[in-house]
Amino acid sequence: MIPASNTASGGLSWWHIFRLGLIQTSLGGIVVLTTSTLNRIMVVELALAATIPGFLVTIHHVVQLARPRIGYSSDVGGRRTSWIVGGMFILGLGGVLAALGTTLLPSQYWLGMSVSALGFFAIGVGTGATGTSLLALLAKHVAPERKPAAAALVWFMMIIGFAVTAGVAGHFLDPYSPERLLTVTGTVSVLGIIVTLMVVQGIEPDGQLASTSDTPPTEKGAFSNALAEAWQDPQARVFTIFVFVSMLAYSAQDLILEPFAGLVFGRTPGESTQLAGIQHSGVLLGMTAMAISTLIFKSKGALLLRLWVRGGCLLSAVALFLLFWGGLTSPTWPLEANVFLLGTANGGFAVAAIGAMMILASAGQQKREGIRMGLWGAAQAIAFALGGFLGTVAVDVTRYWLNDPAMSYGLVFACEGVLFLVAASLARHIHIANWGGERQDQLPSFGDIALTEVGEGGMR
Prior knowledge:
Layout: H1 7-10, H2 14-45, H3 51-62, H4 67-77, H5 81-104, H6 109-141, H7 147-173, H8 178-199, H9 223-232, H10 234-252, H11 257-265, H12 269-296, H13 301-329, H14 335-361, H15 369-402, H16 405-427, E1 454-455, E2 458-459
Antiparallel strand pairs: 1-2
Helix pairs in contact: 2-3, 2-5, 2-6, 2-7, 2-8, 3-6, 3-15, 4-6, 4-15, 5-6, 5-8, 6-14, 6-15, 7-8, 7-12, 7-14, 10-14, 10-15, 10-16, 11-12, 12-13, 12-14, 13-14, 13-16, 14-15, 15-16
């Protein structure tokens, strides 16, 4: 095992970052089984109303409002490893409980619902504890010039967890039986815990525990005071609002894009499913391009990160407005190319925002990486909980009044585009500290998508 003695001085190496990414892969594998596979089983195999898995998934999002408290506790303790491992244990247990509850629903409905709800509650707690602590650890110990690429790497590895688990677990789930479901879910959960225990060893050096210079004193840091301090920081506050608005727009498309393709463009179920693959390919391209650009042009890294954050939001808005226009005007509209553009813009902006989050989490006088990450994680969780729900409700309401699927879905896409424009406007006020050689008062203009209004005092 490579020693982590360089953590305190030179930051985490790429090997350490890759190892932490494996934890994200494990997290993604457990989450995709519970939020996607169990959803399908409840609706299709068990013929339950779609609102039941929707309610359970909402529990998992709402519970993550505890992220600021979790982040604060890891700040006070000074170490993140125990929170990462403990969170993965809770997440794995939640996955097994959620699957067990699903198998009980046909014969013992209320017992099954209770066990499932408890499982999704644990999934929310485990995801919040592991995810918040992992990002806080990266924010504190990754060198600034590596943070955008590190964000892209761990996000990419989480998507790998989604894809690999969905494919392999799907193979072993057929033909479906309750026993197979419990076996597959239990296996994925145990593997996730084992991987976490293996890769987390040596990431935080033992000597770090004795260093309290960066640890907020508990006598001054009651949670409510610490949260108020974080919120009073103008940069933390505007970034929280930015995360909420941008992720609300990002998540609102999830449940309506494939029905839109079928109803408006006549795509078959297989073709609309392939559309999701095209979108994810675009997401991976955007992520990769953002990471490579910030690594190659390190001297302009902060500028490029702001460009990706704001430019990604603007391009996402353009792609959504094009979906609106294409649905109304032409049955031969290049839908796949449009969706690929949307995915590329989404991927670039999302990982750039996480990179900015990691940099901003280390800013400020109190060095409270955990509570800042928790605050932004809670904003994202609320946005995701509301996004999918509000998107589907808006489509149903507009279809009731307009009786025109193209216009109904198009109006929702247009509203998402407006939200992205609002997020791009908010991004103008986010200051990302330089790690290269450029001065903020010498940054070049980018015309209509200029990212800064800079004077001697920095970003206004």
